[in-house]
Amino acid sequence: xxxxxxxxxxxxxxxxxxxxxxxxxxxxxxxxxxxxxxxxxxxxxxxxxxxxxxxxxxxxxxxxxxxxxxxxxxxxxxxxxxxxxxxxxxxxxxxxxxxxxxxxxxxxxxxxxxxxxxxxxxxxxxxxxxxxxxxxxxxxxxxxxxxxxxxxxxxxxxxxxxxxxxxxxxxxxxxxxxxxxxxxxxxxxxxxxxxxxxxxxxxxxxxxxxxxxxxxxxxxxxxxxxxxxxxxxxxxxxxxxxxxxxxxxxxxxxxxxxxxxxxxxxxxxxxxxxxxxxxxxxxxxxxxxxxxxxxxxxxxxxxxxxxxxxxxxxxxxxxxxxxxxxxxxxxxxxxxxxxxxxxxxxxxxxxxxxxxxxxxxxxxxxxxxxxxxxxxxxxxxxxxxxxxxxxxxxxxxxxxxxxxxxxxxxxxxxxxxxxxxxxxxxxxxxxxxxxxxxxxxxxxxxxxxxxxxxxxxx
Length: 458
Ligand code: NAD
Description:
By secondary structure, the chain is an alpha/beta fold. It folds into 2 domains: about 5-235 and about 435-455, 3-Layer(aba) Sandwich (Aldehyde Dehydrogenase, Chain A, domain 1); about 235-420, Aldehyde Dehydrogenase, Chain A, domain 2. It is built from 16 helices and 19 strands. A 7-stranded mixed beta sheet has the order 12-13-14-11-10-16-17, sandwiched between helices. It has a 5-stranded parallel beta sheet with strand order 7-6-5-8-9, with helices on both faces. It has a 3-stranded antiparallel beta sheet with strand order 3-4-19, with no helix packed on it. Strand 3 and strand 4 form a beta hairpin. Helix 4 packs across helix 5 (about 90-105). The structure holds nicotinamide-adenine-dinucleotide (NAD). The site of nicotinamide-adenine-dinucleotide has 29 residues, from helix 8 and helix 9.
């Protein structure tokens, strides 16, 4: 067992077993913490907050950079835990990404603003921030929550996903080695603990990344504490491939926009609308890439696709593909488990001749499956792309980038990419519209989301 994992994992008789996503072997035991443990964590985080805020921006940023350096120094160890728990290839890449985002928040400047004569707008700490996260990028998304909150002088209590607690506990262990006590605390509990955290009277802000269904429950919980919310919820991102697109030029980016992290990405390409004139060529190009992409354990760095992280998500993926098949869609490649690799492997799947009323189009698959939908008229494609309740990301693909930018203006999404899909940057705000949530992360906007405002008038 690696040293970092040994630090956070409990004995078999006192913790809950956590399985390797690829092999289903037990990799360690996570604490089973309760609402009583949560009470202690919130009380300690509240007590620690004023001194943390009093350190000031420069000192907090210095400490955050120290943590970032230590995450980089432990990236292989932390990455191994991520790969075990989550299944992804090259977990160390996620660890390095987390360090990069932490530095990004440390380096971002948010100055008070001078307003009308004699008035200033200041950004001040909120207090204790609750972070509730998912299992697809457990460490990266935890840092997306932690970094701006710390930078703005808040302390945090984090509830990791019950599917991937050990990597987040290991991350928090690294933070704790450099920060004052109780500035960042993880409580490894179930949904009940998450619900209690969201409703806790001493929580000033909740940053939540997860499903739309849970996001709605968090809105209800926060009616009690009136906590401010940043909600990064589910996505069902559409892409539109325009007539005249040079398919071979964009095929790799189309494929990886959908299949990065084995499709378990909030802002992955999840429905692709392709003009009839390039439809068959696009389907063939995507299928060729699906067949060529090495699938297997994330521990083997020559693989590019790994397992689905958990059995419930695997069942969703299999159900959506089976439903499409029954409706007469064409399963061009994949469409079945890769059982010889392990119980949670599913072959990368391209579905053609599928319509908007198939569940794989209107529901979020969050796995290695892409439905490719034919269209004849661009206005019709825009209407259909906007036809789901989510609005996280979208993309437009074509040789004429001005035409693509015009279409981007008409798509209901927090981000629209052109000739790419899914890229994010620590300085570029990211967030959803419609049922994909509200509030922004990253950059100056991300810092503002972790602060209260105060006007001072002279
Ligand atoms: P989930 O909603 O099932 O769980 C997320 C977290 O919420 C877990 O920690 C869980 O324990 C906790 N939780 C559950 N019920 C709760 C309650 N009533 N109150 C408080 N907390 C509660 O989501 P998941 O399956 O872990 O993640 C997958 C989903 O997350 C997908 O829909 C995906 O699109 C979305 N996601 C969105 C983004 C984004 O940035 N928009 C990023 C990653 C994932």
